[in-house]
């Protein structure tokens, strides 16, 4: 019975560490430039993250490093679809974006991307509880 609760307890910590520090990015298309904001899921800026932009042919058209706020800006490319790749401390995030004739972007906000997923956490904890109770019943 102790082994069941120990397994459940250890699973709680393993899930938390596996979810920690997801790298995210927001692409903001401006009049003459494109701004990329790179940050972790806890809203910490990804300072000194390497960032590059590829066209559809997978050719790098721009590359740079984020500043202390996790931001990097490059000149606005021609109309088309591009992919921005951000890398920081062993994490990588890829995001496609389109340069169209309009400057409008429909990016989620940083707040929306870093919001704590309470429903997912509740479901995960419920599954862990059910597995622990099932193991206790089976082996206890």
Strand order of the largest sheet: 4-3-6-7
Largest sheet: 4 strands, antiparallel
The helix content is 25-40%
Mean pLDDT: 84
Kindly name the structural category.
alpha+beta
Tell me the total number of β-strands.
Answer: 7
Terminal-residue CA separation? 5 Å
Low-confidence stretches: none
Corresponding CATH architecture: Sandwich
Key structural traits:
140 residues; alpha+beta; Immunoglobulin-like; 3 helices; 32% helix
Q: What would your notes on this structure say?
A:
- With 140 residues, the chain is of the alpha+beta class.
- Helix content is 32%, strand content 35%.
- It contains 3 helices and 7 strands.
- It has helices at residues 2-19, 110-114, 118-139, and strands spanning 23-29, 33-40, 50-54, 60-65, 71-75, 80-88, 91-99.
- The strands form 2 sheets. It has a 4-stranded antiparallel sheet, with no helix packed on it. It has a 3-stranded antiparallel sheet with strand order 1-2-5.
- Helix 1 packs antiparallel against helix 3 (118-139).
- The longest helix has 22 residues, at 118-139.
């Amino acid at each position: 019975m102790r082994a069941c609760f120990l397994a459940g307890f250890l699973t709680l910590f393993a899930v938390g560490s596996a979810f920690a520090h997801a790298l995210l990015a927001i692409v903001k298309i401006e009049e003459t430039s494109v701004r990329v904001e790179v940050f972790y899921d806890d809203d910490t800026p990804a300072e000194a993250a390497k960032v590059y932009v590829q066209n559809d042919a997978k050719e790098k058209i721009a590359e740079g490093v984020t500043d202390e706020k996790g931001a990097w800006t490059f000149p606005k490319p021609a109309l088309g679809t591009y992919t921005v790749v951000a890398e920081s401390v062993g994490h990588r995030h890829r995001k496609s974006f389109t340069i169209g004739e309009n400057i409008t972007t429909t990016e989620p906000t940083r707040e929306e991307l870093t919001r704590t997923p309470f429903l997912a956490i509740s479901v995960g904890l419920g599954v862990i509880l059910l597995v622990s109770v099932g193991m206790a019943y089976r082996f206890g």
